[in-house]
Design a protein that fits this description.
This protein is an alpha+beta fold and 202 residues long. It folds into 2 domains: 3-85, no CATH class; 108-201, Ribosomal protein S6/Translation elongation factor EF1B (Alpha-Beta Plaits, 2-Layer Sandwich). 62% of the residues lie in helices and 21% in strands. The chain has 5 helices and 5 strands. The protein has helices spanning 3-20, 22-33, 36-105, 108-118, 154-167, and strands at residues 126-128, 132-135, 140-152, 173-182, 190-201. Strands 1, 2, 3, 4 and 5 form a 5-stranded antiparallel β-sheet that branches. Strand 4 and strand 5 form a beta hairpin. The longest helix is centred in the middle third of the chain and has 70 residues, at 36-105. The two termini are 76 Å apart.
Length: 202
Amino acid sequence: MSRLDDLKASLKQIIDRLRESDAYSQARARYDELDSQKKLYVKLGAAGAAMMLVVSTVLGGMVRVATLKSAIDEKEALIGYLNQSGDTLRRFKEKQSGAGAADMNAGLSSFLQGVIEEAGVNEEKVKVGSEVSADLDKAIQETKVEVTLSQINLRQVTKTLYDITSKGSVRGTAITALDIQAKDDFSGWLDATFTVSVYKAK
């Protein structure tokens, strides 16, 4: 059954109930007492009211359809956004995995030199020591490198330390010692010495 048929059935039920009511009987009796011109006015008014009822019902249906369509569009947009975010996250993880594999294959000293260079520190101000390995116990081995940065600013120190820990997270790098000294000439330059360690099972 179509929506129009449902509407017709609903209107018929309403009309039947009205005809069975006392109010309808009284109104019908008063209507019969009217002259022909007044009856015409009543019929026109009733037709107008019926038309308004139909129009309001149709408009209500259109509003509900528009609301439903808007909700569907919003859900489709959300699904598209989630799919796009998932693809972006997957590509990011793949990129991180690739970078992590390269980091794991490089020595700790080479890794540190690359990170410090990317942080914008002039290589003339960088001294990266040799790797030193030692057994902490029967199960764990530590490999560490001492790094000295001369005459750099606070932003470079902060970025270097952050990049070492974040980019080296795959291989488990950690800053295990840090000493920062300010120049006595109040120039704002700093000297930083720190140790980077990597722990792995034997």
